Amino acid sequence: MSDAPMLSVEGVSKTFYPGTVNERRALCDVGLQLAEGDFVTIIGSNGAGKSTLLNVIAGSLSVDSGSVVVDQRDVTRLREHRRATWLARVFQDPSAGTAPHLSIEENLAIAYNRGKPLTLGLGLTRARRAIFREQLATLEQGLEDRMSHRVGLLSGGQRQALSLLMASFTHPKLLLLDEHTAALDPERAELVLRLTAQMVADQHLTAMMVTHNMDHALRLGNRLVMMHEGRIIHTLEAKDKPTATVADLLEWFSQERGGMTDRTMLA
Amino acid sequence: MLGAVDQGLITALLALGVFLTFRILNFADLTVDGSFTAGTATSAILVFNGASPVLALAAGCIAGALAGGVTGLLHTKAHIDPLLASILVMLAMYSINTHILWLGKDGVKRSTVSLLGMKTVFTPLIQHRLRGSWTSVGLIAVGVVVVVILINWILSTKYGLAIMATGDNPGMASASGINIDTAKIVALMISNGLVGLSGATWAQYNGTSAIGDGTGMILIGLASVILGNAIFGTRFLWLATIGVVVGSVLYRLVIFYALSWPFVDNSDMKLMSAILVVLALVLSQWKGAQAMVTKLSPWRTKNAPEPMTVAPNQFSPFAEADAAAQVVASGLPSDVRPD
Fold it and tell me: What is the ipTM of this complex?
């Protein structure tokens, strides 16, 4: 493990619709560092800036100020597709992370090529199909026997499991999970969560997971970050996280938000 | 009648180009009318000036590709809506094509170039009175098959998959490290290159090129794609591309038949084309016709759950807007939707 952080976010600010009545400060001077192998869960109420932070790191949103450094490489000015060499994401919407009219194997081929040049070599070869089949089997969804099926025919849970596989395929320096279980029923969410924990552990990935679910936030990862109104208001480090409870989190929330009730926060 | 098949095979190249943008890239590209004439004009003027006919075909292809590239640049770099960007290029191409037609070595400013008696790729066929025979159908078909194979090969490469992903889910493509701007420009250039090649061949086949050659060609391309996809489905790429070729030939045959009616003459052709496209669009929405097509096509029955309902929408010039709306609604990050 190197001393330099895998991800370093420094002084990042982002304001939407500046200078209009709708002006909203989504991120205010946010700083965060992840060491190699860190798995940080991020919680916060709606509009806290969790997803904006992920979007800023992934490059789908530009920053107003501050910097994003991945593995000692300043990526602040790089566009999303360039950052994809080092970063992989799973979106909240199961249909966002896959191409619905392409087959499972075609989707996997695209993910497999992340960070490599797009050549005129064949996208799907026998060797690659064998790798895909093997990897799909680890999802325990029977997808390895449906590789030529269109992804649009899969259920939300299956698509999310596939997205997760596609994201971790190329051993990204950083895995970004944006409420990736929020659109699923509890049973599917549990499955995807289990796969997530397994993949991050097996491949020793550095990861960030945004969630609304405090229980998930406490169960997964070695660190926890709580956000509110564009700022990081509380962090739990590796040594403290195992003993923290949902009650603790609610306590911090109510300290910050004063009059708000627990119910509002959970919504 | 075989002459109509010849023509249908030549416009099949154009239809394949339209298939690439409308179906694969999900991009409502109206550059076609301009890039087709760019192909006919470039090809005709080169032949007129005594250049090699084969070289003239290649030049027509390049002229079309350049027009498509400009549409791509306007869309990706100047952020102009696909429909508007392509209409702008279509308009601009009218002037450019006029100038191309003025490039005759004698310096005469023609709006029509006739290739009567000049050496084209079809001269050997004409000399043996084989234009519009099974021989010419066979020879042109060979060329079209080569293009179909090329398209299928390109789309099966890593870059081809990137183009397909860009059309299907741009957010996913971008997050997978694909430069979707470049992918769009490349696809538009390939598509309009095919359209230009179609135009270049068209001019040499018919022995003439005029400034109005491309008018309404986008409709012919669309009609071919709709007809072909309705019969052959879109599940398998190679079948879909063959379907587009068949659709193009069918379209020509229908027009050929319609023109043989006593009260219809050549000037009614555009009206006929428009009516045919409306019929194809309406029929492809009609469940009865879908069931019939499914019944008649053995390869479709295996894929019964194929959602045909998306088909009409895909071909609407506003499909791009719909797709964009879906992307926004699907929660992809964008500056409009902050959190």
Answer: 0.89
